[in-house]
Specification:
The chain has 101 residues and is an all-alpha fold. It is 76% helix and 0% strand. Helix 3 crosses helix 4.
């Protein structure tokens, strides 16, 4: 019993314990905020990787459009519904799939 009272009255042990409790729970950058920020960082890194992948794909598409006339024609046909002279263009509307939600 005397051993425990000596530990509890040790001013250095009390100071270190209070300091650790303060850092873990009451400080501006407590453990809970650190965990939250680590989670946010992982989410932001995942978004960064996604956008870097998209940038690479766009860069490849851009270089292909700048150098390949067939790619330019394909892009114009798909995006702007352009057609060659004498061709018929049929556009199918898939609005029934949107209304069945």
């Amino acid at each position: 019993m005397q051993r425990y009272t000596r530990l509890l009255t040790n001013k250095y042990l009390l100071a270190v314990t209070l300091f650790l409790v303060w850092l873990l729970f009451f400080d501006q950058r407590d453990i809970f905020q650190q965990l939250q920020r680590r989670k946010e960082l992982k989410e932001l890194e995942a978004k960064k990787a996604f956008y870097q992948k998209e940038i690479e794909q766009s860069g490849r598409a851009l270089s292909d459009l700048q150098s390949n006339p067939a790619a330019i024609e394909k892009y114009a046909r798909e995006r702007y519904m352009m057609k060659r002279e004498g061709e018929d263009l049929f556009i199918l509307d898939d609005s029934t799939a949107l209304n069945t939600k």
